[in-house]
Write a structure and sequence with these properties.
Layout lengths: L10 E13 L4 E12 L3 E5 L4 E7 L2 E2 L2 E4 L4 E5 L4 E12 L6 E9 L2 E9 L20 E8 L6 E4 L3 E5 L2 E4 L12 E4 L1 E7 L5 E7 L8 H18 L7 E7 L6 E2 L4 E5 L12 H17 L6 E3 L5 H19 L6 H6 L1 H8 L15 H6 L3 H19 L1 H15 L2 E3 L1 H12 L3 H9 L5 E7 L4 E8 L14 E2 L10 E2 L3 E6 H8 L14 E4 L1 H8 L7 H16 L8 H8 L5 H13 L9 H21 L9 H16 L3 H14 L11 H12 L2 H13 L3 H10 L6 H10 L11 H9 L5 H10 L1 H8 L7 H9 L3 H11 L9 H32 L2
Parallel strand pairs: 1-11, 17-18, 18-20, 21-22, 23-28
Antiparallel strand pairs: 1-2, 2-8, 3-7, 4-5, 4-8, 6-7, 9-10, 11-14, 12-15, 13-14, 16-17, 19-20, 23-24, 24-27, 25-26
Helix pairs in contact: 1-2, 1-3, 2-3, 3-7, 5-7, 7-8, 8-9, 13-15, 15-17, 16-17, 16-28, 18-19, 19-21, 20-21, 23-24, 23-26, 26-28, 27-28
Family: Belongs to the peptidase M1 family.
Cofactor: Zn(2+)
GO biological process, one term: proteolysis
Amino acid sequence: MAELERFYNTFQPDHYDVFIDVNRAEKTINGKTTITGNASTPKIAINQKNLQVTSIQSNGQELNFSVDNDAEAVWITLPQTGKVTFTVTYNTKLTDSMMGIYPSYYEVNGEKKQIIGTQFETTFARQAFPCVDEPEAKATFSLAIKFDEHPGETIIANMPEDHVEDGVHYFEPTVRMSTYLVAFAFGELQSKMTTTKSGVKVGVFATKAHQPKELDFALDIAKRAIDFYEDFYQTPYPLPHSWQLALPDFSAGAMENWGLVTYREAYLLLDPDNTSLEMKQLVATVITHELAHQWFGDLVTMKWWDDLWLNESFANMMEYVAVDALQPDWHIWELFQTSEAPMALQRDATDGVQSVHVNVNNPAEIDALFDGAIVYAKGSRMLVMVRALLGDKALREGLKNYFAAHKYDNATGADLWKALGDASKLNIGKIMNSWLEQPGYPVVTAQIDQNGDLVLSQKQFFIGDGKDVGRQWQIPLNSNYDAAPQIMADNSINLGNYQSLRESNGHPFRLNVGNNSHFIVKYDDTLLTDILDHTDELDPISQRQLLQDLRLLAQGQQVSYASLIPLMTKFKDSKSSIVNAELYQIANNLKMFAAPGSPAEQELRQFFDFLSKDQVARLGWMPQDGESNDDQLTRPYVISASLYAHNTDSITKAHQIFTDYQDKLESLSADIRGFILKNEVQNYGSESLFKKLVTAYQQTADASYKQDLRMAIPSTTDPALISKVVSYFEDANVVKPQDLRAWYRGLLVNNAGQQAAWNWLRDEWQWLNDTVGGDMEFATFITVTAGIFHTSERLKEFKDFFEPKIDTPGLTREIKMDIKVIESKVALIEKEQDAVNEMIAKSLN
């Protein structure tokens, strides 16, 4: 693999005239790109990937060039340095890789159709047209697109269409932007439009496989989000329109192309009459994430991929800030506590994890940077800490100045810290660099020493083996005692006599109030008992945080895992959905201590029944008009637990609901539909039911229903049907490559199907590499596998298969970390299994 070479250093493009002719029938692309820019040397390079370059001309003269496929480059000898213009003529294939220019497939009334879309992040613009495909190489782009057009088709791009001539669609020139943000799409599309307060046209586009009403929710959120961001950033949206496009085949969740944001259908379209609140929240946060990028990432772009966090961490925080403003009744920061916070804390505790800011030394490493738990989740927690330190007034002033200073240009992390520091008069860079440049996070131990003083100390926290190299953080403590400083910069601090502090404050001592800082707390027995005696005084986030920190400490073998079980009974009747989310996270982790089919597993099922039965009785099975958000979000946790418990009444009730709706399953309430279908497959399964659900999966355009079917079908225990599921993995007519990981995980987590899924991954690794390799999601097949495996036998098999691949660029870190992830679980089970199972048995008596 070639080392990275920055082509921008010798050639700086100013403008591209891009002509692309797509023939869908022949699956070919013919292109001609004219580039104007400044060359500092007579020999320059531009990027290409899989392009057949036939000619390069300047002023009518043929130029000498050579193609270097290993470096994804074309070397060009120019007639002179300085300002130059040259035209590259080329052709290439339309592929099904979901990268570059590619088709998306769908059906309408049984007729197979396709639309063409693009995905150029990270380095796939070079598959569509020759360019300097680096974030810093900003230029303007004039697109001219021709295709085998038929009546009723629509074409859209970053900018409005200017005119059509001889079947070529010409678009207005873009503003100055990076190559990876260029986008266009065409096909038979439906749309709905509106306009923001400031006159920006907002549209949602989808295939005609969807009901028109499925576009309404996204249109409303997108319009209000742009209004919100223009006000919050105090910077106008810079383009005339903002199109949101749902693509039937899409590798990522969504992509922030400037003016033409692309999405998986599941993350943009929804049926307003039958979609769970959880799914509405997810779709809203995805839309607001991508629209946050229109400023933070698009208007101002990271200079190089090592500062990817500048784009993603910020957008990840802003999605919650925006939705909280648009839908305050949702209490969306509670979702932050159940998604971003635990994801970041879990992964960041494994030795070898990347830091938020990562140097990139090899092209294959760029896609590996997109670690959702670190660059997105941990990074957003970093910025939530910054927001808490600055307050919104200074944050908004700093951002306004940042955009003004760097608009249509590039920036680094230091530029952001300077703008925020100038606005707040705080040395934000000094505080945040300890979080940005170092992997991991601290556990702060709070204990009363032999002198009766309350002492805090920090040390890096690990789950599994970890090498302590003395890392230290500047920790925003967020304590409820004034004696604790705002920032803990030392390894240890003494807060003074505990009894005096306790008496004067009148409530238990706590740290990280609000759970906004990226650390966990280990209280000594006296402090923890005091908190537990007053849990009814804690808000839901604090209750959840208590359980979360203790779970992590137990996984890190710093407290006993068995000690969590009495706590679970204490919170089992909580009406808070975020407390229940953590409660059942702990409960589901207990499954690894009980071997399938063992007496311990039977007792664990009884324990799940004990935890859930009163809640199921309280909430009922079907959503009720006027019920609280918490009740809506809690129901799935307790129903799932009750079905795992083999509660006879629940299994019978679920079967009755299925029977009542068997001819109209799509209309079954989305809140519980997945569990009803899964119960039917597991307890009343048959080949005819299996075929019925697979056919429904292929035919429905409802992404939420599709997701429920994908949860149910791989849960079959029939060996013949398990084999059938595996056969679908490589059949794109059933399982699209974008959905393959979810199907694989569904079968892997099924005890009856795990061996078949694992065999498939090992046998078909080359096929998988050929199909989704080079995609940022490829390495997550390894992550998913390690997340489920927990026995010494599976650990050996995992190592035997993946260790020979450890030097594969882009996979090295993932393989090393995931071996440690499984090792930590094996060690924990070996140490705690008997104590955990004894405590479960004791809790049932």
